[in-house]
Amino acid sequence: MDRVIYTSLTAMRGSMARQTAIANNLANAQTPGFRADMAESQALWLNGNGGRAMSSEEVIGADMRAGTIAATGRDLDIAMQGDAMLVVQAPDGEEAYTRRGDLMAAPSGLLSTGDGHPVQGTQGPVTIPPADSVTIDDEGRVFVVPAGGDPQNPQQVDRLRLATPTGSEIVKGLDNLFRVKGGGILPDDPEARVVTRSIEGSNVTATVALVDMIEASKAWDSQLKLIDDAREMDSATANLMQLPR
């Protein structure tokens, strides 16, 4: 009975963690550059003489497969080629990385991603001065035509920092940003290129995620049934012990 309960408990916790990851993936199926969460379970052996082994299932990383790149025609939209990642400033002020390329300029001129993280350039946070137009080339260089300026003579104001995760271990945070595991920063990749006026979509396939959610729900139900069966066996055993001698 004791082992049955622990078996069901650990399986239900795993199903909950899996459902949480799947729900987050579904919620971000249309988020530009989103990388799907991945969950994995492993055994956790108890200290002492016990013979039980529980498991822990948690988000251990992200599916780094590329999403589909679609042309938008918008000047500030970019999609990173290869494994390059855009350098941004996280809410805690630290350096972080993303594949999200739906950039926008705030009224102050600060360039940020669609979810509000300031984009970093070679000179710090990229700031766009008042201009008639803003464009980004395939090397990540940001050009502007100053207000009233010559459209044939754009001026470069900065260059987007593009980093490479090759040779480094990166982890995904709850804010959907990537960081170097254990601290540190990724090296800049001067050879990195972007696809201009385009957006990389999420790599989540909604139909696959829905099937995964149904499987996790069925796994939860099966464990509830196992607990009910264990309760019935326990009651039967208690009744047997109460039989008159």
Structural descriptors:
single chain, 245 residues, alpha+beta, 3-stranded antiparallel beta sheet, 2 helices, 25% helix, elongated
Summarize the structure.
With 245 residues, the protein is an alpha+beta fold. The chain contains two helices and 18 strands.
Structure, described:
The chain has 245 residues and is an alpha+beta fold. 25% of the residues lie in helices and 30% in strands. The protein has helices at 2-27, 206-241; strands at residues 37-45, 53-62, 69-71, 78-80, 85-89, 95-98, 104-105, 111-112, 120-121, 124-125, 131-136, 141-146, 155-159, 162-163, 170-172, 178-180, 194-196, 198-200. The strands form 8 sheets. It has a 3-stranded antiparallel β-sheet with strand order 6-5-14, with no helix packed on it.
Series of H and E elements: HEEEEEEEEEEEEEEEEEEH
Overall, the morphology is elongated
Provide the gyration radius in Å. Answer: 25 Å
State the share of residues found in helices, binned by percent. Answer: 25-40%
Average pLDDT over all residues: 84
Estimate what percentage of residues fall within beta strands. 25-35%
How do the strands and helices of this protein lay out in sequence?
Blueprint: H1 2-27, E1 37-45, E2 53-62, E3 69-71, E4 78-80, E5 85-89, E6 95-98, E7 104-105, E8 111-112, E9 120-121, E10 124-125, E11 131-136, E12 141-146, E13 155-159, E14 162-163, E15 170-172, E16 178-180, E17 194-196, E18 198-200, H2 206-241
Antiparallel strand pairs: 1-2, 3-18, 4-17, 5-6, 5-14, 7-8, 9-10, 11-12, 12-13, 15-16
Helix pairs in contact: 1-2
